Amino acid sequence: MAGGRVQGKIAVITGGARGIGAEIGKILTAEGATVVAADLAPADGVPTAAEGGPAAYRRMDVTDEASVRAAFDDIAATYGRIDILVNNAGVPGPIKPSHEVEEKEFDLLFDVDVKGVWLCTKHAVRHMLEQRSGSIVNMSSIYGLVGGAHIPLYHAAKGAVRLMTKADAATYATSNIRVNSVHPGSIETELSKSLSAAPSPEAAAYAQRMLDNTPVGHRGTPEDIAYAVLYLASDESRFVTGTELVVDGGYSAV
Ligand SMILES: NC(=O)c1ccc[n+]([C@@H]2O[C@H](COP(=O)([O-])OP(=O)(O)OC[C@H]3O[C@@H](n4cnc5c(N)ncnc54)[C@H](O)[C@@H]3O)[C@@H](O)[C@H]2O)c1
Description:
Blueprint: E1 10-14, H1 19-30, E2 34-39, E3 56-59, H2 65-79, E4 84-87, H3 103-131, E5 134-139, H4 152-172, E6 177-184, H5 190-197, H6 201-212, H7 222-233, E7 244-247
Parallel strand pairs: 1-2, 1-4, 2-3, 4-5, 5-6, 6-7
Helix pairs in contact: 1-7, 2-3, 3-4
The chain binds nicotinamide-adenine-dinucleotide (NAD).
The site of nicotinamide-adenine-dinucleotide has 29 residues, from helix 1, helix 3 and helix 5.
């Protein structure tokens, strides 16, 4: 049920064009925020404001500092402030063991999943420091909490996001800027489909193993993650910073 849990706040969601990011945009909008969806992908799939989608779409490549700086400066100039940043854009990277990964594959994964979080934080925080408030939510993964053989470098990248979150939480706490991470289990999106569909024996077993190891017995939906982000983005979580919110149907509990 829609309320006003983030009423009047200005929110930027990276990777907001589809999957989990699009659902976060929908729910933050329904709860009263003005949402800018920022994505590398074209705006084609992004619902319009009239359809319950974000107030605006902004093309941004999180790996490119000039693109990130320009986007955050434009958004701050247009709306006057930036209250919420959801660092959601991410890629799974190569589905192969470390010794088979090419340098360019490593660089792309870490550019999007790690450098992208840092760059967007850097350029959003400049505005949050001026207004002395803000909430940053970083999308990690249960794979940022434990290791695994399927996509080893993704674990490394999401683990980096987890600790960047805690370090930034400590750094900006006295400026009234909170930084938290969300750790989804297996969620039905294009990204998780690509992991299950890859042509390797590990990938073939992946989907079944995820289900077998999830006590609730099914995958999550983007909405399940969006409600966790809503809590951390809202003032309801004003005493919460540097935490890791796991949303995984019990996967990491057993
Ligand atoms: N789906 C899952 O099971 C799952 C589980 C744990 C964590 N996650 C994380 O949740 C986040 C969202 O995943 P999803 O499943 O919705 O993925 P998705 O592939 O459906 O969406 C990712 C979005 O990020 C955008 N993006 C990619 N590179 C970008 C760049 N350089 N600049 C700007 N935007 C870029 C894509 O265009 C896309 O719209 C990711 O960080 C992912 O690692 C997903």
